[in-house]
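Tutorial, part two.
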Amino acid sequence: MARESIYNLVPEQYVEQPKPPMYRSKHDPTAPVTGSTFGTHGTTQLHGAGVVKKRGAATFGPSNKTNPNPQAYLKRGAPLELPAPTAFKYPDARRKPAVPKVEDRPVMGIQTAKNFITANAVEAILQVPQGLGETEPDYLAKADYGKVPEYLSQVKEEIRRENEMIDAYVMEMGRAQGAVEEPGEELIEMSAAERSELVRALKRKWDAVNAKYQKMACVELDTVGKVKRKEGMEKELVQIEADIERLERPGPVYVSS
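Running the prediction step on this input gives:
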């Protein structure tokens, strides 16, 4: 059901849509209907109906063979005209030499005057040496095998200089922020074990505070104390997350002794 509105009482202005132009075919309407079976049935046939305009070699090129005669087909009772049978013979190129018969005797007593030792020596001397294939390089024979690459030493030196700059910057920022209150105090770097233990303790504290905060979500904040308690828990969670992020950040952490 449509909702009533005062705007429905105002008559809308009718805008007449313009008509599109009449469709005009790009084909000639007076051309005969070529290659169509429309109008070929009955006593009255249309002009050009059933007429196909054939063009030479219009589909697959000129025809080089004659079409079969549909009247010359094998009729019932007609004899088959087959070529005369001939004996099968293998071609000479494919046949192997015949196996010698039992009566055949090998030729005996053939001797040669060739000195095979001298012939083999002359053939070996005159033989052209064949090219050796490409052998794989022997990496064990390299001059720098087993040594540390020079670029790794450069990278380690750059990392060491960057760490020294970061340590100096952190110590300078600690002094600027008042981390060193007395001249006798010094900044000591925390060990990895101390940092991991402190991170675990902060995460346990975050879980405890978050559990209390989740319980307050179901309580109606109808007093000022409840509102302040909730805001304090939110600030404490944010501070714990910031401390955990600072401790998990790569780089040394310094504390005053």
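The first helix runs from residue 116 to 126. In part three we will examine how such features are distributed along the chain.
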